Amino acid sequence: MNFVQTIPEPALAPPSGRKTAGGFSTLFGGGANLLATLVFVAAIERGLPHLMAWAFAHGVWQGDGEACRDAGACWVFLRHKAPFILFGIYPEAQMWRPIAVVAMLAALTLWTMPRAHWNRSTLAAWGVGLVLAVALMAGGIAGLPPVPAASWGGLPVTLLMTVLSLAFGFPLGLALALARRSALPLIRYVAGGLVEVLRGVPVVTLLFAASFLAPLLLPETIRLENLTRALGVFTLVSAAYFCEVLRGGLQGVARGQWESAQALGLRSRDVLCVVILPQAVRKVLPPLTSTIIVVIKNTSLVMVVGLFDLVSAGRVVLNDPAWPMPYAETYLMVALVYFVICYGVARYSLHLEETLEEGRR
């Protein structure tokens, strides 16, 4: 039989211990790479000295608005305006309340990060913490003076919008993902149509619709704050994106997992929550993280409906006539806050990927 090999293949030599010059060949190998590297180095060589001079050599760290005119970076402006950028137009006498909300949300996030804390107690702590955070911001209880949602702003609004839209959007997205996999055509088509509409319409358009159409469609006895309308929009949009990500993860779990769990006598809810969903989330952790980061950044769009998040607070603070409108410094600060949040989420996701991969070995 000619297709049966009777002579063994010779053993291959072990790989060389020398490191290849991959980095050198990437930067200078070939004409295109060499040209791109030279252009990049030339841009840095010409731009970096001017940037350093603007930021440090000519930067203003003390003084007032007059000291910043015809000077470099006006860092003293951020020192004076940082409270407004971070907390908006919240009453100054009650400024401890948004600070406490930010600290509480940060503490809950740090507590939740170890996998040993993923239990019902932590989930209950998040529920209590979110209720307490909203109560602190709104006031009107325990002797706290009431503060309308229109006076909220800055970092607390960004964090609350992000956490609440994720908390409501994830289970809703899971329900839509299960509906899109339903055997009933009506449920499948309705869920698919809702998801496609929410993904196909820009978030800004949905925010405008919620801001201007909701008062016309709802009864006069029901009046919703702009913050509540924006939260509803972000919840629905995040649910639509979560739906498609989770649906891909559910399709990646073998059908035999469902059948084996059901053969063991597990209820359908236990099969989904204990057996299927953990595997599905593990498979789609990177796109799930990307969706969370998109939701975080989308909260900056609330400025179009008159809410004071970080970006809109930064825009308002630039209108002070006593200062020379330092746009770059203000938006650098806002970008740094968003970067820290998003980078922290990305690094934690990478840590989870490595940890879960090690657990599977």
From TrEMBL:
Subcellular locations according to the entry? Cell inner membrane; Cell membrane
Similarity comment: Belongs to the binding-protein-dependent transport system permease family. HisMQ subfamily.
Its source organism is Novosphingobium resinovorum
Its predominant location is membrane
Q: Which InterPro entries is this protein grouped with?
A: AA_ABC_transptr_permease_3TM, ArtM/GltK/GlnP/TcyL/YhdX-like, MetI-like, MetI-like_sf
Q: Which GO terms describe its biological process?
A: amino acid transport
Q: Name one Pfam family in it.
A: BPD_transp_1
Any transmembrane segments, and where? 21-44, 95-111, 123-145, 157-179, 200-218, 230-250, 292-311, 331-350
Q: What is this protein called?
A: Amino acid ABC transporter permease
